[in-house]
Write a structure and sequence with these properties.
Length: 283
């Protein structure tokens, strides 16, 4: 079991370093590209501004994602727990602690996570209540910078298609063509990630909750309204914060207490619990 844990941590570090290397490669290569290529100065300046600002924001939000891991404290003040016991109904046998709704125990982090969305294997951390907003911003600006870089490279390739540039600068041409393909793939992937993540934000549902709800529907063929869905605007503010900050930082949810449209012990309902209740009913 210990060997498996070490291998998992090693794989996680390799994937994170691979992601970081790709980001650094695209960022550094873009600076070289904008310096080397011959395009109108206005287009070069505009491309530099439109790329560098979101690229720098991407690295900033990556730092905040890694910093805010959303770990629940192993010890909770007894008076606080007694006062808010109805919010801490689940008990984690591994951490030996009560935890609030929407929290889960991550087997890779070996900790209970506040409003856990999923464990990101490429970043090596859990996407949770404390960094979900930063994650959405990270993939949004990652898509933006990748798309701008792709558009700049395509413009350059089209402007030089009838010239002898490729014969005179073989190495640079190979790098540009390769990076164009990489940025095209990166743009598509980050766009799909952002689309999925933002759709969940608008519905105030996590990836884990969505997966469990699908299982619940298959098990019962029933539909249950999401109690956390309080409307698109409020849902977005819970994750991305005050719109006066242009959603660039902040959040309105603490990951412990959640406003709901109706009271319920668990959402989505557990299929195991439903099965147990049915067995009791027919005893």
């Amino acid at each position: 079991m210990r060997i498996k844990t070490r291998e998992t941590k090693k794989d996680s570090k390799i994937k994170f370093l691979s992601t970081l290397c790709i980001l650094l490669y695209l960022f550094i290569f873009t600076q070289i590209l904008l310096y080397k290529i011959e395009i109108p100065i206005f287009l070069k300046t505009l491309s530099s501004i439109l790329f560098n600002i979101p690229a720098l924001l991407t690295f900033i939000y990556l730092f905040f994602i890694l910093k805010n891991k959303g770990y629940l404290p192993n010890t909770v003040d007894s008076s606080f727990l007694a006062q808010h016991l109805r919010y801490f109904k689940k008990f984690c046998n591994r951490c030996q602690m009560y935890r609030p709704e929407r929290s889960h125990h991550c087997s890779k982090c070996n900790r209970c996570i506040k409003k856990m969305d999923h464990h990101c294997i490429w970043l090596g951390v859990c996407i949770n209540n404390d960094n979900m907003g930063h994650f959405v911003r990270f993939i949004f600006f990652g898509f933006w910078s990748s798309f701008i870089l792709f558009a700049t490279q395509m413009s350059f390739l089209l402007m030089n298609r009838d010239k002898n540039f490729y014969k005179k600068n073989v190495v640079l041409a190979v790098f540009i063509i390769t990076t164009t393909l990489v940025t095209a793939i990166t743009s598509i992937i980050t766009f799909l990630f952002f689309k999925t993540a933002f759709r969940n934000v608008m519905k105030n549902v996590t990836f884990l909750e969505k997966e469990k709800y699908v299982d619940y529907q298959m098990f019962t063929n029933n539909e249950v309204t999401n109690p956390y869905d309080r409307g698109v605007w409020k849902n977005i503010r819970d994750v991305l914060g005050d719109p006066r900050s242009l959603f660039l930082f902040g959040r309105d949810s603490d990951g412990i207490f959640f406003e709901k449209t109706y009271e319920c012990d668990m959402w989505p309902p557990s299929c195991k619990e439903i099965s147990r209740r049915r067995e009791i009913q027919y005893l």
